[in-house]
Design goal:
The protein is α+β, with helices and mostly antiparallel strands and 497 residues long. Among the domains are: 176 residues, no CATH class; 166 residues, no CATH class. The chain is built from 15 helices and 23 strands. Strands 13, 14, 15, 16, 17, 18, 19, 20, 21, 22 and 23 form an eleven-stranded mixed β-sheet that branches. Helix 7 crosses helix 8, helix 7 runs parallel beside helix 10 and helix 8 crosses helix 9.
Length: 497
């Protein structure tokens, strides 16, 4: 018999394998369905139940109890995972045990009360509160008491909990020193009960809450240039998501699927292996960030090579997201490829936004043959370059560590995007034909532009089919020359897998 009512959810860290929380398994399922005594619950669960009782919330959803664990077939997880967005999105409140490394540590912490502001004072016989003015750093980057600043916040290091934070309409966060409240219209804590001083939300300060506004249709907090900013918000979330830890790398797509589903609905766009059709070219501009850890691709692949979800490491979009003027809007740019088609067969009928992706990307552009520089792995050389200028292309970011360069199979640069300088914004508000005329004549002004290329490897036995091996950003000494090659060279139709 189904029951209806208000319920809370719990975000918590499971801890190491030897100190896991109370679990529902196939062996304990029938017993748990009869009821669980408070004394049998670990401290974090008991504290969460206490919060619900104080607030009059009748039910609570806890993943380790409400999804059958340790199944060989993972049948229950496969059934519940696609609905995770609904679970957190429809809850009345999400309770976040941010300072608990496992379920034995609880939500409530002993702390020094003097840390909290405001201070109650009596002024002219009337009770009021004394507030400290925020510093310039707090206004620009958020308050140190907020969740993103708290180094003791263990949940901020877990990938699954980012989705829980974004999808939950209201969250109460028990950090080490402060009680924090977050919802689409307000971030507050005991220090700033009327709101932490960084409203409205933006991608540099409170990106999760900005995405929360987007998926809930709260447009009053969104910037004027909504379209570009919405996608930029997604890219920043991808950055944060991939910097967090996953127990199982196979969860790379499932752990963000709930957010992707809601975001796609908000921007009316289709989702393909972590990227969006209507902003596909910009979405390709990620690169591997972790230089000191192994960057690997799964075998068999869980996502196409052009997707950030194909590699096991932190990815970065920031080098490209800085391409905004002082108002926060995207600078003018010119695509150097055309998206022809995206084939994305369903790999899991019940979980279209997660698990794996076999998407292929067909586009039209100009391929430039390259080889690795003899002396520097971070540089490439143009092959058969007939101009007098140097062949070297700077700033090559390999997708995986210790990439084994093929001895005979050629590599190619595919110029996909040119970002125009902010120094001459009025010049670049042109159509494609005008841009091409400008490229032929006013070259000096174009040297401050920046060119982005995908570095590709040909797939043996498959004509015009390639996989991505990295990203290259071209310095100003080669920008004009390679832009001309990309605009006036022979275009080919290719497929990326």
């Amino acid at each position: 018999m189904e029951k209806f009512g208000y319920y809370a959810t719990l975000s918590h860290c499971w801890g190491d394998p030897y100190n896991r929380p109370l679990l529902t398994t196939e062996q304990t399922l029938s017993c748990h369905q009869q009821g669980i005594e408070d004394e049998a619950l670990p401290k974090t669960f008991r504290h969460a139940v206490q919060v619900c009782r104080e607030l009059g919330i009748e039910y609570i959803w806890i993943d380790s109890l409400c999804i059958i664990q340790e199944q060989e077939t993972q049948e229950d997880w496969a059934k519940e995972a696609p609905g995770m967005g609904h679970v957190y999105g429809n809850s009345t409140l999400n309770i976040s045990a941010a300072a608990a490394a496992d379920s034995t540590q609880g939500c409530f912490k002993e702390r020094l009360g003097l840390i909290s502001w405001p201070c109650p004072v009596l002024l002219f016989g009337q009770a009021c509160y004394l507030f400290r003015s925020p510093t310039e750093k707090e206004v620009a980057f958020g308050d140190p008491g907020d969740i993103g600043w708290d180094l003791s916040n263990v949940l901020a290091r877990r990938a699954w909990t980012l989705q829980e934070q974004i999808l939950s309409r209201r969250s109460i966060i028990f950090s080490k020193n402060l009680l924090i409240w977050r919802c689409p219209t307000l971030s507050a804590n005991e220090k700033y009960p009327l709101g932490i001083p960084h409203l409205p939300p933006n991608t540099s300060v409170d990106n999760p809450r900005l995405l929360q506004c987007i998926i809930n249709g709260i447009t009053s907090s969104l910037p004027k240039d909504q379209t570009g900013k919405m996608y930029d918000c997604w890219y920043k979330i991808v950055e944060e998501f991939t910097s967090r830890e996953l127990t199982y790398e196979r969860d790379r797509l499932p752990a963000i699927a709930g957010v992707a589903k809601r975001f796609g609905r908000a921007v009316n766009d289709s989702y393909h292996a972590g990227l969006w059709r209507n902003d596909m070219i910009f979405g390709l501009l990620w690169h591997a960030e972790d230089f000191y850890c192994m960057r690997t691709r799964e075998s068999p692949a869980r996502a196409p090579s052009w997707s950030w979800a194909s590699i096991n490491c932190h990815v970065n979009y920031s080098r490209n997201l800085v391409s905004h003027d002082h108002n926060g809007t995207r600078l003018s740019w010119t695509p150097l490829v055309n998206i022809l088609d995206i084939m994305d067969p369903t790999t899991c009928k019940d979980h279209p936004f997660g698990v794996t992706s076999r998407a292929t990307l067909s586009l039209s552009g100009v391929l430039l043959a390259v080889i690795q520089n003899e002396h520097y792995k971070s540089m490439l050389d143009l092959v058969d370059n007939k101009t007098a200028s140097a062949n070297i292309i700077h700033h090559f970011f390999s997708d995986v560590s210790d990439y084994i360069w093929p001895a005979k199979a050629p590599l190619f640069c595919l110029p996909i995007y040119i970002r125009h300088s902010s120094d001459h914004l009025d010049i670049y508000k042109l159509d494609q034909a005008s841009w091409e005329r400008l490229l032929k004549t006013r070259t000096n002004e174009l040297e401050t532009n920046k060119l982005y290329c995908l570095v590709l490897e040909a797939i043996k036995g498959h004509e015009d089919t390639y996989s991505r091996v990295g990203l290259s950003t071209v310095g100003k000494d080669k920008t004009v020359e390679m832009s001309r090659m990309a605009v006036f060279g022979e275009r080919r139709s290719i497929t990326l897998i």
